[in-house]
Amino acid sequence: MSNRRFLLAASLLALLAGCATPSAPLSVADTLARDPQLSTLNALVQQAGLADMLRGAGPYTVFAPTNEAFAGVPAATMAELKDPARLKAVLSYHVLPARMVPADIKTVNARTANGAEVALARTGDFVTVEDALAQGHEVIASNGVVYAIDRVLMPPRR
C-alpha cells in the first residue's frame, strides 16, 4: 500500500471515529449489573423483582452495598432476606425516589422508596447514609445515581 493510500485510509478511519457517538449512560439496574463489586446486590435486586423498577424512568438514587458489605451481615440477618417481603423492604430502604448528586446532599433526612427515612450527610468529598460511607465516587445513570456503600442498611421494623 502506498503512503498516500495509507494516509487516506488512516484519515478516513479517524474521521469515522470522530463521528461515533459516546454510549448513553446505563440505567440504575444495568449499572448495578455491570459492577462486579455489586454482584450480590444485583442478584438480590433480581430476586426481589426490583430490576424493572430500577430500569424505569426514575429518578432514583441507590445506595448500593458492596459484596464486602453483604459479607459482613450476620448469617441470621441474611436468612431473614429469604422472606420476599423482608428482602424487598431492605432493598427499597437503599433507594431514594430522587436523583441526588453529592452537591444535592446536605445533612438531612430523606424518605426512601419503602417509606422510611434515612439520614444523609456530606462533608467535603465524603457522603454518608445512616452509618454507611460511600466508597469512591458516584456513578451517574440514565435514570439516577448509584453510590457504592460499605454497609447494608436495615430499615426499622414496622
Automatic annotation (TrEMBL):
Signal listed as a keyword: yes
Signal peptide start and end residues: 1-22
Membrane-spanning ranges: none
Family matches, as Pfam families: Fasciclin
Domain of life: Bacteria
Cross-referenced InterPro entries: Adhesion/Biosynth-related, FAS1_dom_sf, FAS1_domain, TAT_signal
Alphabetically ordered keywords of this record: Signal
Gene3D superfamilies, alphabetized: FAS1 domain
Domain FAS1: 25-153
UniProt entry tagged with the keyword Transcription regulation: no
Name of the featured protein: Fasciclin domain-containing protein
Native species: Caenimonas terrae
Lineage summary: Bacteria, Pseudomonadati, Pseudomonadota, Betaproteobacteria, Burkholderiales
